[in-house]
Give the backbone structure.
Amino acid sequence: MPSDVIQWFPGHMAKTRRLISENLKNVDLVIEILDARIPYSSRNPELSRLSQGKPTLLLLNKASLADPAQNKRWKEALTNETTTCVLTDCITGEGLGNLEPAIKKILSEKLARYEEKGMSGRRVRAMVLGIPNVGKSSLINKICGAKKAKVENRPGVTLDKQWVQTGIGVDLLDMPGILWPKFEERRVGENLALTGAIRDGVLDLEGLAVILCKRLRLLYPALLADRYKLGAPKSFETLSDYELFLAIGKKRGFLVSGGEIDTERTANMLLDEFRACKIGRITLDRYSKEELHA
C-alpha cells in the first residue's frame, strides 16, 4: 500500500484545510466523526491542530459494523476531561439520542453564560469533521430526519461546506472529508483503504483483499472460517495469506477457464462483504493501552 496514495486529490485537501480554518470562529464546538471499525486509523492527526483547541465531541460512527467489545473499549479510552465520545450509527440511528445531552454537557459553561445574558434560545453551532466516507452526511440526515446532505457510498461526495439546521437546537456545518498528506504508518493507509475511505480506483484491490485475509485470520479466524466454509481455523494455519485468498475464491466457485481462480472477482467480493458486515462485526484497530492496533 503506497504511503502517498492520498495524492489522489491534493487540491481538495488544501481547500478543506482552508475552509476549516476560516470557519472555526463561527462554531462553538467540533464534532469529529470516526469509523468505529478503525478508530485509530480514521482519526486525522491534523484535525486537532486545525481545530485550535475547540471543545470536541467524538462520534464512533458505523458502530453496528464494529466489534461490540471493541466499541466499548474505544469509547472509554477516547473519553476524558476535554473530549466526550459517543457511539453512533448512520444506518440504525443508534446513539443519536445521546448527542444533544452530550453537546449540552460539553458547552455547559457557555450555555449558562448565554442564559445569564437572556440568550437562552441561541442555537449552538458545530463543525462536523471526518475522513471521506465516514458517514458524515448520512448521520446529519438521520439527525435531521430528512435528506439535507448529499449521500453516496463513496469518498469525496461532499466537496464544499453546507449549514444544516437540526431539531436538537444545533446547527451543523458539514465539511468535506479530509485525509492527510502522508501516512506515517503503513497499516493506517491499509485500514483506510479497506474501509472505503480511499477510492478503490487508485488501489490494487487484489493486494488489498490479501491484506484483509491477513487481518481476519489473525483477529477473527472463526468468522472468516464460518463465512467461507473453510473448516476449523487450524485447517488454514499453514496457508500463506495469498493461498488463503485463493482458497476463498475456490470455495465460492470463482473459476475461469483452465480451473484458475478469478482473483479480481474474489477480491471485489471479499472487500464488498467486509464493508457490508456480511463476514461479521469487525474492528481492525484493536485498542491497547499503548493505543496501537494489533
Notes: The domain at 204-275 is CATH 1.10.1580.10 (Conserved Hypothetical Protein Ylqf; Chain: A; domain 2). The mean pLDDT is 86. Strands lie at 29-35, 56-61, 83-87, 124-130, 162-165, 170-174.
